[in-house]
Specification:
Blueprint lengths: L9 H15 L6 E2 L1 H10 L8 H11 L7 E2 H22 L6 E2 L1 H10 L6 H11 L7 E2 H8 L5 E2 L2 E2 L3 H12 L11 H23 L1 H11 L4 H14 L2 H23 L8 H25 L9 H19 L1
Antiparallel strand pairs: 1-2, 3-4, 5-6
Helix pairs in contact: 1-4, 4-7, 9-13, 11-12, 13-14
Length: about 325
C-alpha cells in the first residue's frame, strides 16, 4: 500500500497485478477465459462474480486479441488504464486533497452530477467502499472495488461518478443466482401509490356517516318549518329552545338512520365511495411523491412554490387516470 497521494512504483504495481492475476487464475493456466474469470472473482468474493452481462462486457474489453482468453499482458493494459482513470476521478472528488474521501466529499460529487441519493443509500454506498470501516475511503479501497467496472465508451473508460454509482447499484442488486433484483426505488414508488390509496379508503370510510347524514338531510322537505322555528326562538331570545330547535333535524336524522338498520345504515353506499376514492387518492399521492425526486434541479424540491405546483398537478393526474 502506498502513502496518501503517493504514486505506486512501476515494479511494485506490476508485482501487485501479477499476484492478482495469479489469484484469479484458479486453474493456473496462465490465462483467463470467461468461466475462469468468474471463478477467480468468486475466489476474491467480488460482487461482479454473479453479473453475467457485466462479466461478458469485461471479457470483451480485456481480450484485445479476440482469442477468447485474457493473457497477463492484456490484463496489465486494462488494469493500468482503469486505475489511471480511477485515480483521476478520486483526486477530483478529494476536495481537501488529503488522499482520502469522506462521506461529505462523496455526497458532493453525486449532487454535483445531479444524482439525488437518500441519506441511508449514500451511507450504504460509502460503507461498501470503506472496506475497513474507518470512516475514510483510501485510493486502494476505491480502486479494489471499482477496478473491474465495465463502463466503456468509444474513447475508452468513462469513470464518471454517475457510471460508478450505476455500477454499484447493479452489483448490489445481483443475487448469488445471477438474477437482478428490483431496485428499492421501484418498491418505494409503488408504496407511495398503495399508501395513498389506503389513506383515501380509511379517510372516506371514517367520514362515511357524515356523508350519509348530509344526503339524508338534503332529502328532507320540512327545512322551511325548522328555519321558521329557529328564527322565532332567536327573536324571543330563548337560547335553550334555539339550540334544541336548531339541532332537531340532526337528531331526527340520526334516529331515523339508526332505526333503519343500526350502524350499517350509516355506511350505506360506502362501497361505491371506496371504489371511487381508491384510485383517485393513490394517483394524487403517488404522482406527487414520484414527481419530486424525478425533477432535475433537486435543490428546488424544498421550495414552497415547487411543492405547490406539484400538488396542483396531482388532481389533474388523478382526474385523467379515472377516465
Amino acid at each position: 500500500m502506498t502513502n496518501k497521494g503517493e504514486e505506486e512504483p512501476e515494479r511494485a504495481r506490476r508485482a501487485r497485478l501479477l499476484r492478482l492475476f495469479e489469484t484469479l487464475d484458479t486453474n493456473q493456466q496462465g490465462q483467463l477465459d470467461l468461466e475462469g474469470l468468474r471463478n477467480g472473482l468468486k475466489r476474491i468474493n467480488h460482487p461482479l462474480q454473479n453479473a453475467d452481462k457485466m462479466l461478458q462486457d469485461l471479457m470483451d474489453i480485456c481480450d484485445t486479441s479476440g482469442d477468447g482468453f485474457i493473457q497477463f499482458d492484456e490484463f496489465v493494459v486494462f488494469m493500468e488504464a482503469t486505475e489511471q482513470h480511477l485515480r483521476g476521478l478520486f483526486n477530483a472528488i478529494d476536495r481537501d486533497k488529503n488522499g482520502q474521501l469522506d462521506r461529505s466529499e462523496l455526497a458532493h460529487a453525486l449532487e454535483s452530477n445531479g444524482i439525488k441519493v437518500e441519506p441511508h443509500k449514500l451511507q450504504a454506498f460509502f460503507d461498501r467502499l470503506d472496506k475497513n470501516s474507518d470512516g475514510q475511503i483510501t485510493f486502494e479501497e476505491w480502486r479494489d472495488f471499482l477496478v473491474f467496472i465495465p463502463q466503456f465508451g468509444e474513447d475508452g473508460l468513462d469513470p464518471g461518478i454517475r457510471a460508478i454509482y450505476s455500477y454499484y447499484l447493479a452489483t448490489v442488486n445481483v443475487n448469488p443466482e445471477g438474477d437482478v433484483t428490483l431496485n428499492d426505488d421501484l418498491f418505494e414508488s409503488i408504496g407511495f401509490f398503495l399508501a395513498g390509496g389506503a389513506a383515501g379508503v380509511v379517510s372516506r370510510t371514517a367520514t362515511a356517516p357524515f356523508d350519509r347524514l348530509k344526503v339524508y338531510l338534503i332529502a328532507q322537505t320540512d327545512v322551511g318549518q325548522t328555519k321558521g322555528a329557529v328564527k322565532m326562538a332567536a327573536v324571543k331570545g330563548e337560547v335553550g329552545q334555539l339550540a334544541k330547535t336548531a339541532t332537531r333535524p340532526m337528531r331526527d336524522a340520526i334516529r331515523a338512520l339508526w332505526n333503519a338498520g343500526g350502524v350499517r345504515s350509516f355506511f350505506a353506499g360506502n362501497g361505491l365511495n371506496v371504489v371511487k376514492v381508491l384510485p383517485e387518492s393513490a394517483i394524487k399521492f403517488g404522482s406527487f411523491e414520484v414527481w419530486i425526486p424525478s425533477h432535475v434541479v433537486h435543490e428546488l424540491f424544498q421550495t414552497v412554490k415547487l411543492k405547490y405546483l406539484l400538488g396542483c398537478q396531482a388532481p389533474f393526474c388523478s382526474a385523467r387516470g379515472r377516465r
